[in-house]
Write a structure and sequence with these properties.
With 162 residues, the protein is α+β, with helices and mostly antiparallel strands. It has helices at residues 21-24, 100-106, 115-123, 137-161; strands at 7-12, 15-20, 25-27, 30-31, 38-43, 50-58, 68-76, 82-90, 97-98. The strands form 3 sheets. It has a 4-stranded antiparallel sheet, covered by helices on one side. A 3-stranded antiparallel sheet has the order 2-1-5.
Length: 162
């Protein structure tokens, strides 16, 4: 939702409101929903043209919360240059995060960017990566970079082969 600029729809006895995904996630297990609100929908803007999307996450066991993960969306113009890029990170902070530096690096480039470098750049702006019994901050950061790399490659493959 964050990576793709979704709007979260909530309803309460007071009425309906729409919350940008960028404002929805506030901390671990905390959202912008009020006590009397229900989440009733999520609206995603439609990307047009040649696009590719991918999600990659790493968890110790299937179904567990991800140690780290990435969502990538890429749209190219007629010349094969990236005109839109979204990279979302999960498990690397108290809320989902956009990898703004990596997104900026990608826009205007061809799709043959070095995916490993892009993964490293995506981690460069992280300030508070959690450490817990599942992994240290440095381990999560390495896994996060690898997930961005893999999601990037998957999104580019989808873009090129549909």
């Amino acid at each position: 939702a964050l990576a793709l600029d979704a709007e979260i729809d909530a309803v309460s006895p007071r009425g309906h409101r729409s919350i940008p995904a960028a404002d929805f996630f506030q901390g671990f297990w905390t959202t912008a929903l009020h006590d009397d609100e229900l989440l009733v929908g999520v609206r995603f803007p439609v990307w047009k043209g040649r696009c590719g999307f991918a999600v990659r996450e790493f968890a110790r066991r299937h179904g567990d919360f991800a140690i780290a993960g990435a969502v990538v969306g890429v749209q190219v113009d007629g010349d094969g240059r990236i005109e839109r890029c979204a990279i979302g990170l999960l498990g690397l902070g108290p809320v989902p995060i956009r990898a703004a530096a990596a997104e900026r690096q990608a826009v205007g480039s061809k799709t043959d960017l070095d995916a490993d470098e892009l993964g490293q750049l995506a981690m460069s702006e992280l300030t508070e990566v959690p450490s817990d019994l599942h992994g240290s901050a440095s381990y999560r950061t390495r896994v996060g970079a690898a997930m961005v790399t893999r999601a990037w490659n998957d999104a580019i493959a989808e873009l090129n082969h549909g």
